[in-house]
Design a protein that fits this description.
The protein is mainly alpha-helical. 83% of the residues lie in helices and 0% in strands.
């Protein structure tokens, strides 16, 4: 697997996993509210997960920009083309 694909696949995996965590956390918050239980800690965790998601999305964008710029550079050859 080319380096670019490896890193982008990892970034995409982290984003997908974090979205799943966020969905489960929202379900937990809904359940807590239904049961009239304190939801503040769960809300705090949700905010942290959402912040992590933004960071992972920013990192993916960084990778896309980095690899795009590298591939467009004059004289650039990918690792696989060098072999």
């Amino acid at each position: 697997m080319p380096e670019r694909d490896y890193h982008l696949a990892g970034a995409n995996r982290r984003i997908a996993e974090t979205k799943q965590h966020i969905a489960r956390q929202r379900e937990t918050i809904a359940m807590l509210r239904t049961e009239h239980r304190p939801a503040a800690p769960a809300l705090s965790m949700l905010k942290a997960l959402e912040k992590s998601l933004r960071a992972f999305e920013d990192h993916r964008l960084f990778l896309l920009t980095l690899y795009s710029a590298t591939e467009e550079a004059p004289g650039h050859r990918s690792r696989s083309a060098r072999r």
